[in-house]
Amino acid sequence: MIGLYDLIVTAILLVGILLIAFFIKEIRYAGETCKVYFMPGLLLKILGSIFFCFVYTVYYTGGDTIMYWQDSVLLRTELLRDFKQGWEVLTTAALDRNLSTQGVTDYLNSFGGETTFYVSRITAVLSLFTGGSFLATTVLFGALSYTGVWALYRVFIKQYPSLVHPLALAVVFVPSVIFWGSGILKDTITMGCLGWLTYGIYHVFIARKQLLLSIIVIPISFHLTAVIKGFILAAYLPGAFAWLLFHYTSKVREAKLIAFSLIMLFSFTAIFLYYFSHLLTDASDMALSFLIGRASEFQGWHAAVGAEYGGSSYSLGDWEPTYMGILKKVPASINVTFFRPYLFEVSSSVQLVSAIESFGVLLLAVFALLSAGIFRSIKMIFGSPFLFFCFFFSMSYAFATGFASYNFGALVRYKIPCMPFFLALLIILLFHRRIQKTQTQVNN
Asked: Which end is more exposed in the chain, N or C (fewer Cβ atoms within 10 Å of the end residue's Cβ)?
């Protein structure tokens, strides 16, 4: 799958990417401390893409990436053969079989679901710019995703300019995010989109700068995330809404206005609950049934895969199919997402890398809590709209992925969207004294 042609095309692509990146660094970030991390972060991302290709063609010899690529080859071939016909296939909804496109869609493995077929579509379009090279297309995936990771890093250092260096480690240089967010996967797309979505929200609603770029990236990032992995938004949006709500209410100093706003909020909430309580009850029952069904489906499938391929499955123990039964598994689910597999649970070389990173995250969490203290940490989180957003998203998403995965191999991929938010949160708690000192100097 990777030959001399791939190496030549990839080399040409790399020259173009690095030249563009160099000019961006020198022009866009001239005079900024963060510029020193721009090129190293990109180079690591590119290396991650290249390593990802060799792992999936030599070690795994299959998987989602290969399926997306094989389907993209068919789509790209059809586009080049007859663009009108190829475009019709490309824009056909998954499982929508008709005579005009069936000659191609019958051979697409990802056509069974819109989320998977969407990745094949994106891969096919990007492969048009890489001459149909698997390696070059993967590198392009990684480079585009890196723009979102960098955008997210920019938001963090705008909030905490005294932590430019440690936050780079938490956002840009996370090993699992570099590797699993650099291949032809859903995770690569959604990781980049989350970064751009956060960047857009921050600049439109808080900084009120870069408005044109933000207005462009918000709907694109939102749409791609919603289509490819919509459940990410279920954890992300409530936290983002709270971030904006708390940000604006913290600006209000008039006690009467605050009281009036709270009275209106509680009044509308009470009226809503009174008239729509039956609908909420029905929706709650449906949500619980859906959650239990999806969780059981994922747990069973991933456990079976783990048992077949090296014993990478894990268990959270028995749980009752009720809200309370699920809530009881929240601590264990969050723990497995951030801190497992433990070193003594390792059963393969791939798991060893994940276990080392998890152990590092555990040490960072311990040091951060010891440095700030439990009560000060809580005060900082609930006293900062942005930190509360990071905390809410990382905890809720970690619970969802830890509860549903039941397989360390799948978990290391699924958890990467919340890792930069959680690690950045820990870094901010760890260096809280530096932040306070900087704020004191600014105020004085």
From this structure: C
Cα separation, 323 vs 296, in Å, equals 14
Question: Any idea what the Cα angle at residue 229 is, between residues 226 and 235, rounded to 5°?
Answer: 80
Verify cis geometry, omega within 30 degrees of 0, for the bond prior to 175. no
| Nearest 10 degrees: Cα torsion 137, 140, 144, 146 | 120
Angle between helices 134-159 and 186-202 (to 10 degrees): 30
Is residue 233 packed enough to be buried (19+ CB in 10 Å), middle (13-18) or exposed (0-12)? Answer: middle
Query: Is residue 432 a contact partner of residue 371, using CB atoms and an 8 Å limit?
Result: yes
> Is a pLDDT exceeding 90 seen at residue 388?
yes
Closest of 231, 223, 354 to residue 298, by C-alpha: 231
pTM for the whole thing? Answer: 0.87
What one-letter code names the amino acid at 205? F
Rounded to 5 degrees, what angle do the CA atoms 227, 205, 380 make?
A: 95
CB atoms within 10 A of CB 146: 29
Q: What whole-number distance in Å separates Cα of residue 413 and Cα of residue 254? A: 47
Q: What is the DSSP string of 370-426?
A: HHH-HHHHHHHHHH-HHHHHHHHHHHHHHHHHHHHH-BHHHHHHHTTTTHHHHHHHH
Q: How far apart are CA 337 and CA 348, in angstroms?
A: 18
Are 411 and 346 spatial neighbours (Cβ–Cβ below 8 Å)? no
Tokens of 313: 């499955």
Whole-number CA gyration radius for the chain = 23
Q: What is the pLDDT of residues 303-355, one digit of tens each?
A: 555 544 455 778 787 766 666 777 888 899 999 999 999 998 887 777 888 99
Long-range contacts for 98-101 (Cβ within 8 Å, ≥24 apart)? Answer: none
The sign of the torsion formed by the CA atoms of 27, 32, 37, 41 equals: negative
SS3 content of the chain, % helix, strand, coil (to 5): 80, 0, 20
